[in-house]
Amino acid sequence: MNNSQAYPIGTPGQKWGEAERLQWRATTTIKREYQQEVVPKIKALENEFVVEQYGALSYDEERYPLFSIKSKNWQANKPTVLITGGVHGYETSGVHGALKFMANEAKRYEQHFNIIAAPCVSPWGYETINRWNPNAIDPNRSFYADSPAEESANLMALVASLPQEVLVHIDLHETTDTDETEFRPALAARDGIDYEADSIPDGFYTVGDTELPQLEFQAAVIESVAKVTHIAPADANGQIIGSDVVQHGVILYPMKKLGLCGGVTNCQYGTTTEVYPDSPKVTDEECNDAQVAAVVGALDYVLKNHRT
Q: Which superkingdom is the protein from (predicted)?
């Protein structure tokens, strides 16, 4: 299947230039409001945590401030946990799952960890229900020096400002039907390559780091989430989204090489979650709960098994 035939923007076999990027941006619209749906939930946590603005997006700095939520009693002798959500703004449960964990579960882990969450890394993407930022750049392929994505650069600066190395990083994502109907065809068109159709896995899975898989840790996350929602099976080729399934519900990516948010730290324990919100078997709230369960499973594993 040829990308240029499937996607209405661009010329066959040619990468997009500025004109195509502007044409694409003109197709985006505000569908929900960050200041109404997300910021109030962040502000509601101010009594229990330190809520700080760590940046703002230049597209509209007043509309798109970036917030972190972190432990009040930050101590040098505690390991640090980073939770990120909304790196792809359209992946709703990443945002609201991070907020739900902070509201309902984080306090019971604070005696063991310093916790910091960046619940909505890409608020423009959240509002337009988009994978990219307004410049047709994917923030989750842009975590590297001199990043072209403001969203990624701001988060990298936040991580660099932390007083200790991060031990645990959980990056909360979704895989949706629109990945196949919109975002992958758009990516192929943008890059001037052929679009290869793929299938969307029905269920939750995790992506570990090829360089440090921590498969027992990944298994603990899967086990925790399985109490809330179903785990994605491998396809007929033993794969999920084109990557080999290395154990039940787990695939691996080279995080730093691909510029993924999962490689933004040098953490010992890292996982990227992938919830499937379009399944008829789940509700939106169950998707949020699956994200919470993933963080809980990760932290419980580290508490039980990590030795300094």
A: Bacteria
